[in-house]
Amino acid sequence: MRLFIITLFLLPVIAVAQDHYALIHKADSFFQRKDYAMAVKLADEFFTTDSSCDGCAYDAATYNAWVGNKQKAIEYLRKAFYYGYGAGRLDLETDFVSLHNEPEWPALVQMGKDSYDGKLENLPTIAGKAARKKYMAWQKDWETNNMASFKDIDTNGTAAAVYKKLVAFNNYKPFTAIGRCLFLYYRANDSVQIPYLVVLPSAQYNPAKKYPLLVVLHGAVGMAGTRPPYYIDSAGAIQSFHRHFNKYAALHEMVTIYPVATKQYNWMAPDDGFGETPAIINYLKHLMNIDDNSVYITGHSNGATGSFSYLMKAPSLFAAFSGMNTRPRVETGGTFLPNALNRSFYAIATDKDYYFPPNGNDTLNKLAHDMGIDWTVDMHNGFPHWFPQFDAADAPVGKMFDMMLVKKRNPFHTNIYWECDDTTHGSCDWLQITALDTMQQPASWHKQYNFAIHPWISNENPDSILDITKQAFNYPRRSGAVNATYDSNVFTLETSCVKNIRVLISPPMVNLSKPVIVVINGKTVFNKKLDYNKTFMLENFVQNFDRVAIWVNYIDL
User: Fold this and answer.
1) How far is Cα 421 from Cα 304, in angstroms, rounded to an integer?
2) Which of 33, 294, 506, 512 is 20 to 30 Å from 317 by CA-CA measure?
3) Could you read off the pLDDT of 94-148 as tens digits, one per residue?
């Protein structure tokens, strides 16, 4: 299967102009029309000025295999693997049947597998190994000399006085980056450290100023290796495939994070790496002055699905969610669409997208609006799944930023609907589902939402329609849900298939000089005054380093 992919973190360190990449897309269009000779000609022209695009080299190998240029196809395959392309089962790719009898074929199959498994000493691996030691040493130095710490806060005095100190904390320090870039590592465990890139809004970072934060998640997580990405010593990678995000993040003076996925640790499946992005955000809140109510998340393809998954499973850190060419579906559990009522989602879509076709977007858009969800679909005609590669994506991304940045997080909003099938993801702002009881009969308002999508679009040919029907969402387990509101110290909750709940309390929500009342399913279960719980408040602040969502007490029910 021929697949056009430009992996974000495997791009060259020198930024490539968009018009240059138009050559490889034009070559692809000729390939689709079976004009293989013209596809070869355009691919060769592309590689006269750019020899390091892994996915482009793989496509060039495909064109040459079809036209009968066997040795040239072999050279392009070697180039693709050297620059980081992974092909776990090259022997099953029908495009390369003509190469099966060539003496180099067995070695090429193994080379593709080794690159896929992260075992090949290709350019990203070589560059990553050379840089890893240097960057981890710098990170250790930053941690020693620049990280804001709980120790910087005077916790003497009353709990109420300490609460005010936490809210007002602003003791951040200046630091020197590599231009505008920080190259850091997320410690998944004692043996796995995953690199990521942070881009500052400008070279004159001001530690006294609160900055909005943007998380950009990349796609193709199923093809992600374990090697460090090849963005070393340059921001060139973010100036190409994700250049639109980077442009508007800089324009709006945002700190930008580019996390990196591996096959095991990512934002889709399995669930092992879902905590990576929140952990990185928490870490950066100790290093730089982040506006807690202006943290946004977006991405493309699998990255956009990741953004949607955080909306469904862990929205508390974020003000708004968006994505380009999104498939809105949770891969590790139920897609509980009413959870989106707590925030918003902005989707940039294209009508030739195999990942989630236009009829799926239309149906979901209507369903979301009928449910009262703040949901936007910005559809663009004539473009395939890799829309960010085109200049035409610039204006839609700018519009998305304009719509996104007016959203501010309110962790104390008075209405929450929350549903989960795993209490690991049982939290939304001030409400936590701590135990489920899915043997109960669900309440009438506790529903599953789903719909069939037909037809789909071919990945290999965006003009080809496939006679396939698939359900939009997946529900592998039973869930529990809570409808919760509060007003004038009274919390009113409706529950379904839920055993235990925790309600978090913060001074902006209630008057602590008066009793707090909790009513669950029509029955008053709590009615008493609450005071500041200093120990709980400080433990919570140490964990989250959030200067807005400071929880001073809790009620377990």
Assistant:
1) 22
2) 512
3) 999 999 999 999 999 999 988 887 788 776 666 666 667 777 888 888 888 888 8
Q: In sequence order, which ranges of 346-493 are alpha helices (DSSP H)? A: 358-371, 394-405
| Tokens describing residue 105 | 């074929």
- Which tokens is 103 given? 């003496």
> Order of strands, edge to edge, in the sheet holding 553-556?
427-428, 431-436, 498-505, 553-556
What distance in Å separates the CA atoms of residue 28 and residue 17, rounded to the nearest whole number?
A: 18
CA-to-CA distance for 512 and 454, rounded, in angstroms?
Answer: 54
Cis peptide before 442 (omega within 30 of 0): no
Q: Exposed, middle or buried, 488 (CB in 10 Å: 0-12/13-18/19+)?
A: exposed
> DSSP string of 494-540?
EEESEEEEEEEE-TTTS-TTS-EEEEETTEEEEEE-----HHHHHHH
Q: Is the dihedral of CA 308, 311, 314, 319 positive or negative?
A: positive
Tell me the pTM.
Answer: 0.84
| Contact yes or no for 548/293 (Cβ under 8 A) | yes
- Give the model's pLDDT for residue 234: 43
3-state DSSP helix/strand/coil % of the chain, to nearest 5: 35, 20, 40
Domains and CATH numbers, the chain: 8-116 (1.25.40.10), 178-409 (3.40.50.1820), 434-438+477-556 (no CATH)
- Hey, is 420 helix, strand or coil? strand
Structure tokens at 254: 């945002």
Question: Parallel, antiparallel, or unpaired for β 498-505 and 415-420?
Answer: unpaired
Burial of 71 from C-beta contacts in 10 A (0-12 / 13-18 / 19+): exposed
Q: Which long-range contacts (CB under 8 A, 24 or more apart) does 98-106 make?
A: 98/65, 98/66, 98/68, 98/70, 98/73, 99/65, 99/70, 99/73, 99/74, 102/70, 102/74, 104/74
Residue 271 corresponds to which tokens in the numbers above?
Answer: 């669930």
CA–CA separation, 419 and 423 (whole Å)? 10
- Taking residue 37's Cβ as centre, other Cβ atoms within 10 Å add up to 13
Indicate if the pLDDT at residue 176 is higher than 90. no
Residue 230: pLDDT above 60?
Answer: no
Distances 137 to 141, 142, 204, 245 between C-alpha atoms, Å: 6, 9, 23, 29
- Name the token pair of 471: 């359900």
Q: Is the dihedral of CA 377, 383, 384, 390 positive or negative?
A: negative
Query: Which pLDDT tens digit goes with each residue over 350-364?
Result: 999 999 999 999 999
